[in-house]
């Protein structure tokens, strides 16, 4: 099996990632190439998040948000103990698990989805570990997934996974928090592929009426240490907040605001409308 | 399990040089990444990595500081009631045909060994300039202990407790409130200890600037498993000296109950380099060593009850304190290298042992502690030969369980 993009030369104009250690030797994969190309063309990046299995037609939701202007779609594989997630995504995860969602089934559904933009899977490390790092990375690649976010796998624990993901052609997106010192942020960015995920606030995922001051701060700090696309997520609730963050960031990740609409019964159309609103606000 | 990468806990065998019996260098410091063999580590969101590093640095500095030890020991003596006695059980010994000694953590202030850990962590929190403690609790013993330390040091305190446990340990909820703590019931997941840990971690991510997470067992991300074991080793260090005075040597067997495993880790630490056999007793419904497989939860790689996809399963036990689908990583390692063995006790055996100890020795112990007693009742004359000398750590007193026992025994 050859993962999409594996072994392909880097897109023209993409600077080599600095200081790549042996454990993270793989160059940028299709996710990073796609996002860099769009960013370099002057476009702000919009990455909506959908919990796999939270609603019956979740794959249609993924397609709908892609068509409504997403540059990549983050798909959450539900875990029983989502410790960095707030009430909305906890509920979506629990609902998905009660509906019998498994990582294998969700990825199989995605494999045939033909979404049109890169897919990024977000899940907790135990699911990766249980499957085996290599097998999980290959399953992602075989399902057409271009990137992975594993929020409870910090830099020091992630070398083995990054190596397997890189070998399979999957970019590992790492997170930088408001509490991360600059020197550490620099090392994280060196190991990171795809885009770097700036955590907008100290706290769990979920909607916030006010934009945290840390959201733009973390974007500015990341801009100073990396050339990777910088997307900020956690606490990004409204289109206006997204536009504000995009004054400093390359893009935003929108999770709970979208998932709540799905849990409230809004289908693919409601999801698409929300994403279209974000799109026009950041353009 | 994990393929070839050599980074996950599923890879590799016991470290070279780790033997199976006494005299082996176990229960020392974990490696630089906080690992005991293939278990442990620091699997936390990036937001918490700096806080874990800060805590590790603070603990290392404090643990090397005689002034810290002096203050800790002073509080544990004048306030905590240490040293706790070792009680020779004449009637129970006669009943079982083995010589039974109890390490009486039930006599420590707040009624369990938990006070040893929380006083140490509260002192550390103060050194780090933190003004608030957050904790998880199952049975409520660690919550009560944390609320106590917070009152003693003038700190704010929030305790997360699963709704199921709030129900079955209502008196401990009131105790915590009486001590000035806020108890927040947790309605997510299985609504027990596992979910209380999730919620405490979520709180800590948002409040880490002024809050210390006072974790109650030898679990969680590095440095907690190591730090909590060191704060609890006073149990084993005292017991070893007391046994030598009473017996002129070490006991043949040392037994303690294991949920996360802090009283067992503290006890074992005092005997790791002796010839005593070390036995940890889990709840039959939460037997992570026997039924668990390697995985990652709550910041650590350890043995966990989980399904094929890696979803965590719910433990089931009469005792809220052992109702946890995992085990501290160092215990998983001790099982790996064979230095300790882990067995289980079923709810009915536990209830019988709880009653037996009350009637033969006049001691009403916690349901958690009754697991260790129940194991000995079952194994005396079997895997524990008649005439053996056995030290059992009685981790806590049973006041909190009396109402539930009354229902169950009716």
Chain-wise SSE layout:
The complex is a heterodimer of chains A (283) and B (410).
Chain A: H1 30-40, E1 45-51, H2 58-67, E2 73-76, H3 87-98, H4 103-111, E3 119-122, H5 125-131, H6 133-142, E4 145-149, H7 159-168, E5 171-173, E6 175-176, H8 182-191, E7 196-199, H9 213-225, E8 230-233, H10 239-245, E9 251-254, H11 256-263, H12 268-282
Parallel strand pairs in A: 1-2, 1-9, 2-3, 3-4, 4-5, 6-7, 7-8, 8-9
Helix pairs in contact in A: 2-12, 3-11, 5-6, 6-7, 10-12, 11-12
Chain B: E1 35-36, E2 39-40, H1 49-63, H2 66-78, E3 86-89, H3 90-96, E4 99-104, H4 114-127, E5 132-137, H5 141-153, E6 156-162, H6 163-168, H7 170-178, E7 182-186, H8 193-207, E8 211-213, H9 224-247, E9 253-257, H10 262-271, E10 277-283, H11 288-291, E11 293-297, E12 300-304, H12 329-337, E13 340-345, H13 347-361, H14 367-379, E14 389-394, H15 402-409
Parallel strand pairs in B: 4-14, 5-6, 5-8, 6-7, 9-10, 9-14, 10-13
Antiparallel strand pairs in B: 1-2, 3-4, 11-12
Helix pairs in contact in B: 2-4, 4-5, 4-9, 5-7, 9-10, 13-14
Biggest β-sheet of chain B, characterized? 6 strands, mixed
Counting helices, strands and paired strands, the structural category of chain B is alpha/beta
Residues in β-strands, percent of chain A = 5-15%
State the helical fraction of chain A.
40-55%
Structural class given helices, strands, pairing of chain A? Answer: alpha/beta
CATH topology of the largest domain in chain B: Rossmann fold
Tell me the radius of gyration of chain A.
Answer: 17 Å
Order of helices and strands of chain B: EEHHEHEHEHEHHEHEHEHEHEEHEHHEH
Order of helices and strands of chain A: HEHEHHEHHEHEEHEHEHEHH
CATH-assigned homologous superfamily of chain A: Aldolase class I
Roughly what is the average pLDDT of chain A, rounded to an integer? 92
Q: What's the Cα radius of gyration of chain B?
A: 19 Å
